[in-house]
Amino acid sequence: MANPTVALRLDEQTQARLKELGQRRDRSPHFLMKEAVEKYLASEESIEAERELTQARWERFALTGEAIAHEEVKAWADGLTSPNTQA
Predict the structure, then answer these.
(1) Is the model's pLDDT at 81 over the cut of 90?
(2) What is the pTM of this model?
(3) H or E element: which one contains 22?
């Protein structure tokens, strides 16, 4: 199955910048746009995964009330920088 084409309207200034960058890098504007979209999606998917993880953690806390005391977390974090402590 062939990849479908997606149209993207860009103003003239953005098109010119894209063309110039493509020439400097010996890449087509299509390549640069595709790369930009892929990087954007990876970034947004990472943010969404973190948001979902945070939500799941909050829901678990709301159900159980289980938490770790600040002093325990601080001691653990301080141990991360100590050269004699194994993580």
Answers:
(1) no
(2) 0.69
(3) helix 12-25
